[in-house]
Amino acid sequence: MTSLKVVLADAHKLFLDGFKEILINQGEHRLEIIGAVSSTVDLMSILRNMSPDLLMMELNLSDDNGLSVLPNIKKEFPELKVCIVSGYTDHKFVKEAFTKGADGYYSKNNDQDEIEDCITDVMGGRRFLASGLHITPQKNSTSNGINKNRLEDRFLLQRKLTKREYEVLELITRAMNNKEIAEKLYISDQTVGVHRKNIMRKLGVRNTVNLIKFAIDNQLV
């Protein structure tokens, strides 16, 4: 039986080490783990040099998020099967992942026995959705897969901002004023001011000093 070449991508090394052992010890498939990386830079490098059959990727990576890089991966490697393996179970993330080219979506909250089904379906050309996950809102669901009582991580914080707001935030952290940002982005001072207020509201800060500190502390830039 020919082995499947697999690459793992996750921001947390401890998870990568544990998940690698689970995959090696599962019985149905012969898997060769040819790489386990935490950043998109390392991920793209190994995809280009090792030609894997399957990528199992978390949405939250150390330097970017999986939803951003997924379309580029599928475009450059159309034959590569990609399965999201994530703790983010909100239907919006699941739907967006499939829209951007994911072949499967497995929840870290689920039993590891489902992993074999996931690999079988994805490598067989079938879309896999782990039990308990949905691509549409469910009635009587209040959490949507996200625990609002804990501090949000970088991935969730980034998803709050639009692409333009994120661009403005990056320039704010460089100590640029509204006029300088406006010239850089070819928009008006007033528009920059609106973006600045919206960013502060979404991130829950009240002034520019705290905004810059928040962005740096949470590795948003």
Features:
221 residues; 10 helices; Rossmann fold; Arc Repressor Mutant, subunit A; elongated; alpha/beta; 2 domains; 13% strand
Structural features, described:
The chain folds into 2 domains: 4-129, Response regulator (Rossmann fold); 161-217, Arc Repressor Mutant, subunit A. 47% of the residues lie in helices and 13% in strands. The protein contains 10 helices and 6 strands, in the order E-H-E-H-E-H-E-H-E-H-E-H-H-H-H-H. A 6-stranded parallel sheet has the order 2-1-3-4-5-6, sandwiched between helices. The model is unreliable at 142-151 (pLDDT under 50).
By DSSP, the count of extended strands is 6
List unreliable stretches of 5+ residues.
142-151
Give the number of domains: 2
Strand-residue proportion: 5-15%
Q: Return the average pLDDT rounded to an integer.
A: 86
Based on the structure given, which CATH architecture of the largest domain is correct?
3-Layer(aba) Sandwich
Please state the structural category. Answer: alpha/beta
Please list the strands of the largest sheet in the order they lie side by side. 2-1-3-4-5-6
What is the chain-wise order of helices and strands? EHEHEHEHEHEHHHHH
Q: Tell the overall outline.
A: elongated
Task: Detail the topology: elements first, then pairings.
Layout: E1 4-9, H1 13-25, E2 31-37, H2 40-50, E3 54-57, H3 66-76, E4 81-86, H4 91-99, E5 104-107, H5 114-123, E6 128-129, H6 154-160, H7 163-172, H8 178-185, H9 189-203, H10 208-217
Parallel strand pairs: 1-2, 1-3, 3-4, 4-5, 5-6
